[in-house]
Amino acid sequence: MARTLAEKVWEDHVVRRAEGEPDLLFIDLHLLHEVTSPQAFDGLRMNGRPVRRLDLTIATEDHNTPTLDIDKPIADPVSRTQLETLRKNCAEFGVRLHPLGDVEQGVVHVVGPQLGLTQPGMTVVCGDSHTSTHGAFGALAFGIGTSQVEHVLATQTLPLAPFKTMAITVDGELPGGVTAKDLILAIIARIGTGGGQGYVIEYRGSAIEKLSMEARMTICNMSIEAGARAGMIAPDRTTFDYLQGRPHAPQGEDWDAAVAYWKTLRTDEDAVFDHEVVIDAASLSPFVTWGTNPGQGAPLSASVPDPAGFEDPSDRLAAEKALEYMALEPGTPLREVKVDTVFVGSCTNGRIEDLRSAASVVKGRRIADGVRMLVVPGSVRVALQAVEEGLDKVFKEAGAEWRHAGCSMCLGMNPDQLAPGERSASTSNRNFEGRQGKGGRTHLVSPQVAAATAVTGRLSSPADLPGAAVLEA
Amino acid sequence: MEAFTTHTGRAVPLRRSNADTDQIIPAHWLKKVTRNGFEDGLFEAWRKDPEFVLNRPERQGATVLVAGPDFGTGSSREHAVWALQNYGFKAVISSRFADIFRGNSLKNGLLTVILPQETVEELWQLTEADPTIEITVDLQAREVRAEGITAPFELDDNARWRLLNGLDDISLTLQNEADIAAYEAERPSYKPQTLQV
């Protein structure tokens, strides 16, 4: 029977299938961080259970880590305790850990791929919803709760409810200045924050095939913002080239065997998806959010919508509450919205291509007076690469702050937060109320829009900048 | 896990859609390393408003949350479930839950019940008009009952069986040790290992 990519990966991991029970799936890679693991390790201890597969488990520190003064003790005692708890747990159970200060430390979803641990056809889990990122490799990757973290630590498996399949086909050429971030924000605005619920989404089509691995990660990363179980992209030459030579990529005969298998990981031509969405890449433009969930977005060229225009009463009420929280008036052109803070980073847009993209916009320019711009690389490796390319200097010369790696202002568990009433243009993934700091207001944007916004102080794209045509030529 | 059979209690009508996990429990609470003590963080920002429904005197001691669609969207933090339970909620009713939140709730014995939005609206109107009205969430019968309302809900047999008996998933899975070992023995050698290279 013809199968989709997601169904193939699922089938290859079924450990046990029995009538009336959810399938029990084997987990190829389990990523851990400090926030969602302490209670899981406690559970193991209480029951006297070991970690079943230390060789398929790896931990890093990211959510709580400061991005300044990382050589000093962490000021917040609660954050410090949480990091120390992870270190203690990893030492006690024997889990490989990359702590703050280590060259492999960084946001967990940046670290896995750059080590070559994320590969096509794998099942990847982590106690973090943005685990969907790893689907960019044609892996079935999804976020889990702490009870499931404990379950995977103890058994290397998970009982999982069946999923539905959705194809989002993006054909054509993305116009210049339109990035993967704009594309995924437009997709979420179209299908809604619940639109992907119960589905594994496969992104396909010529526009997707042309994307780099990092751009594909940005797309899959935000699948969860559409409510999807996971997002996937079929592996291809781009995927294989990205992986070859990475520390944990297969070598020699194993490489050949792996590639032979990876090439089978494509949706069969006559396979049927439960739901299909088609998007014309050429119709897209830079996209930003105006509200308090990632589905409340619009093209940068549009204006703040009028809630009265929403047909669904629940959507209308949500829009009213969002505009009240965001302190925005219907009809205001989005390009006139002033920001105080620009954040470039996160598991969505904290990779080297994102930093290059933002740097190319601020290069030779100054960020606007009164605007604070934070650039937070997704990992230490990304930071080192950026320094080698001189990107840190470009940012600093433009007036931005160059920070150490971590989740940082994406969710403000460390000191990088918005003050009440402050407004950000952020390359992260969630514009929820208070997400970046109590009372903070977030507009989700691409790295290019973030950088242009830093220069003008208002939501902007690089094309809005003086001399843009010259620079882009 | 605590077993869930049936529960009757007063309700909190929460007329908000997309009550995301950052609203249910803000990130700074996630620094705790325990499963308890999250009750004061539940809806922390919204509770700053004295008129917020959870702050109303007539809602004190209520145990059934009746929420708008897309409840629990966002992060995978199980802390959101613990916060609701620590506060005293036994069940949450909504027309749509985020997948990860729902999975987490059922693993902790917090029953999340999916009902059509029209029924949610009826429950809102009923419990807004009379805060003393009790709602019964009956997992045995897979039914929600309140004055004049009887609404069946779906929950798959396996999840229901585990909840009714308060069964621990890990113990159940470990009964299939032979299956896991057999699968492991067949895994291809090119699959990556995390051990330092």
Automatic annotation (TrEMBL), chain A:
<dbReference type="GO" id="GO:0003861">
    <property type="term" value="F:3-isopropylmalate dehydratase activity"/>
</dbReference>
<dbReference type="GO" id="GO:0009098">
    <property type="term" value="P:L-leucine biosynthetic process"/>
</dbReference>
<dbReference type="InterPro" id="IPR004430">
    <property type="entry name" value="3-IsopropMal_deHydase_lsu"/>
</dbReference>
<feature type="binding site">
    <location>
        <position position="347"/>
    </location>
    <ligand>
        <name>[4Fe-4S] cluster</name>
    </ligand>
</feature>
<comment type="function">
    <text>Catalyzes the isomerization between 2-isopropylmalate and 3-isopropylmalate, via the formation of 2-isopropylmaleate.</text>
</comment>
<feature type="binding site">
    <location>
        <position position="407"/>
    </location>
    <ligand>
        <name>[4Fe-4S] cluster</name>
    </ligand>
</feature>
<keyword id="KW-0411">Iron-sulfur</keyword>
<protein>
    <recommendedName>
        <fullName>3-isopropylmalate dehydratase large subunit</fullName>
        <ecNumber>4.2.1.33</ecNumber>
    </recommendedName>
</protein>
<dbReference type="Pfam" id="PF00330">
    <property type="entry name" value="Aconitase"/>
</dbReference>
<dbReference type="InterPro" id="IPR001030">
    <property type="entry name" value="Acoase/IPM_deHydtase_lsu_aba"/>
</dbReference>
<keyword id="KW-0100">Branched-chain amino acid biosynthesis</keyword>
<dbReference type="InterPro" id="IPR050067">
    <property type="entry name" value="IPM_dehydratase_rel_enz"/>
</dbReference>
<comment type="subunit">
    <text>Heterodimer of LeuC and LeuD.</text>
</comment>
<comment type="pathway">
    <text>Amino-acid biosynthesis; L-leucine biosynthesis; L-leucine from 3-methyl-2-oxobutanoate: step 2/4.</text>
</comment>
<comment type="similarity">
    <text>Belongs to the aconitase/IPM isomerase family. LeuC type 1 subfamily.</text>
</comment>
<keyword id="KW-0456">Lyase</keyword>
<keyword id="KW-0479">Metal-binding</keyword>
<keyword id="KW-0432">Leucine biosynthesis</keyword>
<feature type="binding site">
    <location>
        <position position="410"/>
    </location>
    <ligand>
        <name>[4Fe-4S] cluster</name>
    </ligand>
</feature>
<feature type="region of interest" description="Disordered">
    <location>
        <begin position="418"/>
        <end position="447"/>
    </location>
</feature>
<dbReference type="InterPro" id="IPR036008">
    <property type="entry name" value="Aconitase_4Fe-4S_dom"/>
</dbReference>
<dbReference type="GO" id="GO:0051539">
    <property type="term" value="F:4 iron, 4 sulfur cluster binding"/>
</dbReference>
Automatic annotation (TrEMBL), chain B:
<dbReference type="GO" id="GO:0009098">
    <property type="term" value="P:L-leucine biosynthetic process"/>
</dbReference>
<dbReference type="GO" id="GO:0003861">
    <property type="term" value="F:3-isopropylmalate dehydratase activity"/>
</dbReference>
<comment type="function">
    <text>Catalyzes the isomerization between 2-isopropylmalate and 3-isopropylmalate, via the formation of 2-isopropylmaleate.</text>
</comment>
<dbReference type="Pfam" id="PF00694">
    <property type="entry name" value="Aconitase_C"/>
</dbReference>
<keyword id="KW-0456">Lyase</keyword>
<dbReference type="InterPro" id="IPR015928">
    <property type="entry name" value="Aconitase/3IPM_dehydase_swvl"/>
</dbReference>
<feature type="domain" description="Aconitase A/isopropylmalate dehydratase small subunit swivel">
    <location>
        <begin position="1"/>
        <end position="117"/>
    </location>
</feature>
<keyword id="KW-0100">Branched-chain amino acid biosynthesis</keyword>
<keyword id="KW-0028">Amino-acid biosynthesis</keyword>
<dbReference type="InterPro" id="IPR050075">
    <property type="entry name" value="LeuD"/>
</dbReference>
<comment type="pathway">
    <text>Amino-acid biosynthesis; L-leucine biosynthesis; L-leucine from 3-methyl-2-oxobutanoate: step 2/4.</text>
</comment>
<dbReference type="InterPro" id="IPR004431">
    <property type="entry name" value="3-IsopropMal_deHydase_ssu"/>
</dbReference>
<dbReference type="InterPro" id="IPR000573">
    <property type="entry name" value="AconitaseA/IPMdHydase_ssu_swvl"/>
</dbReference>
<dbReference type="GO" id="GO:0009316">
    <property type="term" value="C:3-isopropylmalate dehydratase complex"/>
</dbReference>
<dbReference type="InterPro" id="IPR033940">
    <property type="entry name" value="IPMI_Swivel"/>
</dbReference>
<keyword id="KW-0432">Leucine biosynthesis</keyword>
<protein>
    <recommendedName>
        <fullName>3-isopropylmalate dehydratase small subunit</fullName>
        <ecNumber>4.2.1.33</ecNumber>
    </recommendedName>
</protein>
<comment type="similarity">
    <text>Belongs to the LeuD family. LeuD type 1 subfamily.</text>
</comment>
<comment type="subunit">
    <text>Heterodimer of LeuC and LeuD.</text>
</comment>
